[in-house]
Amino acid sequence: MIEGVALDAYGTLFDVYSVEQKCEELYPGFGQRISQTWRQKQLEYSWLRTLMGRYENFWHVTEDALRYTLAELGLAADADNIETLMKSYLKLEMYPEVPQALEAFGSRKKVILTNGDLGMIEPLMNRTGLNEHLDGCLSADETGMFKVRPEVYQLAIDRMGIEKSHILFVSSNGWDVAGAKAFGFTVGWVNRRGLPPEELGVRADYEVTNLLELALAIEEER
Amino acid sequence: MIEGVALDAYGTLFDVYSVEQKCEELYPGFGQRISQTWRQKQLEYSWLRTLMGRYENFWHVTEDALRYTLAELGLAADADNIETLMKSYLKLEMYPEVPQALEAFGSRKKVILTNGDLGMIEPLMNRTGLNEHLDGCLSADETGMFKVRPEVYQLAIDRMGIEKSHILFVSSNGWDVAGAKAFGFTVGWVNRRGLPPEELGVRADYEVTNLLELALAIEEER
């Protein structure tokens, strides 16, 4: 039934909150707040820019989000600090179960489908060795839009040549889960933070707490 | 130069956080967190539904956002409480300077341009008497999309018959300010909460702390 797997990257394979320590080092006492607001604004800007029809790539959006975050918290947006924190986005920690889980998905085609442009996602894949477990990386950047636009999800179908309900889309982000399910994928929600589902009129097909659990559930159904 | 004024409603004319007291009554200790998460989720859902192409009106989105909020905070979504809190959205407090400010804009055409559907905005206008100061209310509901889509801002041009740079669009919401400026309006930001500007590549033409201040600035330039 499931012939291919398309995986979100940020939050799903890589921990976007692993920048917190570096934030705390540079701005003592503010690590957690910077990390959380930064992520929130990064997402907001991706949605708003897509709605406005004023696309800039995810690296650009991520830096804009960081600048806003520092301003909102009343912190100095020192150029060196900005550069250091942006570089930390190229060194996000991978969730520990990811390589084993990717193997457990077996011989199915596996791709990343991410908002990140290749310039920011490829360093992560090389650094963690994930590229060896995957058949490629599809970036929203090709469409000039971000998720949850259908054009972005369509990339997976075009590249894998698999009918959409036979593609398992995997994300830890509730909004991404909703977008992918509305698009028509079979969807697995890796609910790492134990959040309730987003109230957007659709539900994930699978809800798990980590990626390996999902891979094993899919294998069991074969 | 400015021939017409289009005003956002929620956050700009009416205080969306004025529901906090009712939230606190029903869920002691959680008033502020409910009020803030509810607003955040209401906006997120408006953006995400527009991106997904799965429009539901703002009333529906507002109730969905409330349900999510209660679930996230681990609070019971009792049907009576939901009804009470939704009704409080029809009784939001108006910011005190609004009627005087609208008069200070003089004989220019003045309309509301809101995400709210007429069923939820008209009770507020009637209750506060604002309808007497305005030439009408345009709702995003007509377009089946929410701000910051250009189609929504276009409503003001179509209805007022004024060229867009001669329309002053007014909002307290930074994201709405960015959307309206990207669209091409002259934009006044009523920065009620003293926030930094959103980093979306555009800036408001005017930044003020309340609506009367803006009306006086515009009058002075005549």
UniProtKB/TrEMBL annotation, chains A, B:
<dbReference type="InterPro" id="IPR023198">
    <property type="entry name" value="PGP-like_dom2"/>
</dbReference>
<dbReference type="InterPro" id="IPR006328">
    <property type="entry name" value="2-HAD"/>
</dbReference>
<comment type="similarity">
    <text>Belongs to the HAD-like hydrolase superfamily. S-2-haloalkanoic acid dehalogenase family.</text>
</comment>
<dbReference type="InterPro" id="IPR023214">
    <property type="entry name" value="HAD_sf"/>
</dbReference>
<dbReference type="Pfam" id="PF00702">
    <property type="entry name" value="Hydrolase"/>
</dbReference>
<dbReference type="InterPro" id="IPR036412">
    <property type="entry name" value="HAD-like_sf"/>
</dbReference>
<dbReference type="InterPro" id="IPR051540">
    <property type="entry name" value="S-2-haloacid_dehalogenase"/>
</dbReference>
<protein>
    <submittedName>
        <fullName>Haloacid dehalogenase type II</fullName>
    </submittedName>
</protein>
<dbReference type="InterPro" id="IPR006439">
    <property type="entry name" value="HAD-SF_hydro_IA"/>
</dbReference>
<keyword id="KW-0378">Hydrolase</keyword>
